């Protein structure tokens, strides 16, 4: 990840910055890229046939005019020729004149920031990261003079947009992110927040992108121990024998067909001051999902190494809570198992006793996520005294079908919690859309042989798969204020887009961090 440092804010008076500082670095400073902002032209409704209507001129922001003069470039003409209007994420590259190449940084990049909204600044940051891969040192004035929230968004976009998935083998992965970036006028708190958030997303992406022969339940538990050690978290890992002894029937049933036994990881951030609030985050951690006996088609299996994305996000969010020194206690529960086929695999028709004694009739072994979450939620509600309980899971294709890859689904039994999740999604960029807990649909989970069925029977031809899954999970939270995040759609991306990188997206890490920082008071 690029090392980011703050440098002095640019002077706002007339004239170029002093040589050797600001946007005129001396050669020995080894700055090879300068970056300044250009905003979109204001909508002044010019005549439709006018030149300005056909080729809107980007508006320079702080430092842009001086650097253009230094490089001797007519930016307006260059922008018109290239069709660049200052829209967020556009870039315009200027190289120094040949007779001054030794004295000037090798690239001057004008970065489009649109209307300078938080979302557009994230996009600008991501575009700059991709345009500067392989660079040694960037000096950027893109957010000079803007507020902390705007600066944080730009920096997050940059750090996330330059991400590359871990690669195995001899083939090179391509140029890495720039080694260093100096940002003029950067607020220290914005820098800290952005770097902590970006590291959390990188961790979630790295864990989720790794192949399933590496990222087994035991391996994930080992990574959790490493995170706990560096962040000062309390950690407990329950292995298969202890899970069986304590009655985690859902988790052990799902993992029963695999050579890689299940694990339950509990990591806790405890603030130094006494606190009344305790937030418990539960993550689905299916390290590979074959579907079990209810086998998936081959193509549907290819992305199932990512079925542990929820657990990865929870681990990352708890570490971020510790780094941010939040005032409330945060516990993460990672329910880790591999859903495989074997002689001892659980079957459709089995009745499984989950943690706390609720029995579940299995209708489809490919609906394994709700079984491991049932155990983890019941355990948290019964033994951890949470004030807020949140689970996050790549749970249903129905949520992805309904909302696509840009939004996660959110359900909650508390209106205030639902609102807080929506607000956190809008603020962080991990957007969620509320779906209802329709209790009129409870009959779809009726069972003759157990307390509850875990899927609607095929003969019922019942839709609303994401809602039915949420209704099932609600039965295990014992009335605790609870939110369920179904991230099956946005867990992965087919291509780079803005701050989202191809592969695992780490969706939910930014959302949970924002939620934890602005936790609503749910106590009476």
From TrEMBL:
Q: Mention one GO biological process in which this protein takes part, according to its record.
A: proteolysis
Q: Which InterPro entries match?
A: Leucine_aapep/pepB, Macro_dom-like, Peptidase_M17_C, Peptidase_M17_leu_NH2_pept, Peptidase_M17_N
The answer, when asked if Hydrolase is one of the entry's keywords, is yes
Give the reactions, separated by semicolons, that this protein catalyses: Release of an N-terminal amino acid, preferentially leucine, but not glutamic or aspartic acids; Release of an N-terminal amino acid, Xaa-|-Yaa-, in which Xaa is preferably Leu, but may be other amino acids including Pro although not Arg or Lys, and Yaa may be Pro. Amino acid amides and methyl esters are also readily hydrolyzed, but rates on arylamides are exceedingly low
Q: Per the record, which residues fall in region Disordered?
A: 1-25, 39-63
Q: Where is the composition biased (Basic and acidic residues)?
A: 45-54
| Binding annotation for Mn(2+) 2 | 284, 289, 307, 368
The entry's Mn(2+) 1-binding residues are 289, 366, 368
Residue spans with biased composition (Low complexity)? 10-25
A Gene Ontology molecular function term for this protein is: manganese ion binding
Q: Where is the Cytosol aminopeptidase domain?
A: 364-371
Keyword line: Aminopeptidase, Cytoplasm, Hydrolase, Manganese, Metal-binding, Protease
Bound cofactor: record note: Binds 2 manganese ions per subunit.
| Cellular compartment(s) | Cytoplasm
Task: Output the Gene Ontology cellular-component terms.
Answer: cytoplasm
Q: Does the keyword rRNA processing apply?
A: no
Q: Where is the active site?
A: 296, 370
Cofactor(s) named in the record? Mn(2+)
For this protein, the Enzyme Commission number is 3.4.11.1, 3.4.11.10
Member of which family?
Belongs to the peptidase M17 family.
Q: What role does this protein play?
A: Presumably involved in the processing and regular turnover of intracellular proteins. Catalyzes the removal of unsubstituted N-terminal amino acids from various peptides.
What this protein is called in its record is Probable cytosol aminopeptidase
What are the top taxonomic ranks of the organism? Answer: Bacteria, Bacillati, Actinomycetota, Actinomycetes, Micrococcales
């Amino acid at each position: 990840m690029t090392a980011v440092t703050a440098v002095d804010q640019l002077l706002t008076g007339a004239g170029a910055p002093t040589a050797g500082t600001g946007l005129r670095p001396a050669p020995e400073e080894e700055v090879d890229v300068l970056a300044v902002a250009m905003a979109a032209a204001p909508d002044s409704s010019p005549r439709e046939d006018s030149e300005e209507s056909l080729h809107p001129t980007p508006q320079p922001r702080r430092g842009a005019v001086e650097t253009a003069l230094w490089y001797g470039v007519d930016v307006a003409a260059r922008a018109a020729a290239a069709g660049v209007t200052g829209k967020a994420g556009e870039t315009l590259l200027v190289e120094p004149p040949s007779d001054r190449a030794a004295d000037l940084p090798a690239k001057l990049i004008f970065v489009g920031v649109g209307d300078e909204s938080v979302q557009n600044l994230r996009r600008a940051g991501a575009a700059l990261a991709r345009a500067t891969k392989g660079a040694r040192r960037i000096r950027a004035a893109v957010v000079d003079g803007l507020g902390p929230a705007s600066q944080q968004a730009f920096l997050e976009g940059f750090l996330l947009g330059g991400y590359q998935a871990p690669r195995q083998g001899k083939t090179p992965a391509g140029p890495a992110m720039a080694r260093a970036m100096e940002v003029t006028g950067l607020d220290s708190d914005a820098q800290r927040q952005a770097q902590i958030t970006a590291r959390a997303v990188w961790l979630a992406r790295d864990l989720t992108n790794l192949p399933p022969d590496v990222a087994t339940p035991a391996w994930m538990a080992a990574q959790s121990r490493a995170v706990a050690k560096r962040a000062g978290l309390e950690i407990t890992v329950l292995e298969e024998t202890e899970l069986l002894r304590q009655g985690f029937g859902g988790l052990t049933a799902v993992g029963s067909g695999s050579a890689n036994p299940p694990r339950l990881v509990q990591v806790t951030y405890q603030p130094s001051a006494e606190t009344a609030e305790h937030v418990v985050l539960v993550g689905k951690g299916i390290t590979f999902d074959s579907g079990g006996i209810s086998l998936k088609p081959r193509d549907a299996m290819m992305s199932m190494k990512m079925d542990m994305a929820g657990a990865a996000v929870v681990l990352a969010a708890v570490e971020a809570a510790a780094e941010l020194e939040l005032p409330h206690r945060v516990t993460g529960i990672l329910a880790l198992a591999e859903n495989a086929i074997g002689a001892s695999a659980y079957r459709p028709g089995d009745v499984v006793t989950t943690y706390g004694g609720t029995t579940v009739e299995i209708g489809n072994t490919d609906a394994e996520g709700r079984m491991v979450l049932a155990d983890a939620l019941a355990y948290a509600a019964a033994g951890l005294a949470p004030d807020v309980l949140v689970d996050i899971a790549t749970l249903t294709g129905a949520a992805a079908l309904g909302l696509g890859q840009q939004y996660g689904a959110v359900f909650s039994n508390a209106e205030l919690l639902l609102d807080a999740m929506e607000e956190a999604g809008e603020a962080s960029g991990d957007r969620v859309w509320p779906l209802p807990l329709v209790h009129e649909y409870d009959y779809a989970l009726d069972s003759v042989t157990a307390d509850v069925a875990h899927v609607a029977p095929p003969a019922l031809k019942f839709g609303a798969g994401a809602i039915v899954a949420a209704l099932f999970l609600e039965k295990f939270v014992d009335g605790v204020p609870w939110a369920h995040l179904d991230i099956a759609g946005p867990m992965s991306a087919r291509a780079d887009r803005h701050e989202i990188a191809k592969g695992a997206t780490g969706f939910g890490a930014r959302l949970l961090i924002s939620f934890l920082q602005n936790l609503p008071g749910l106590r009476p």
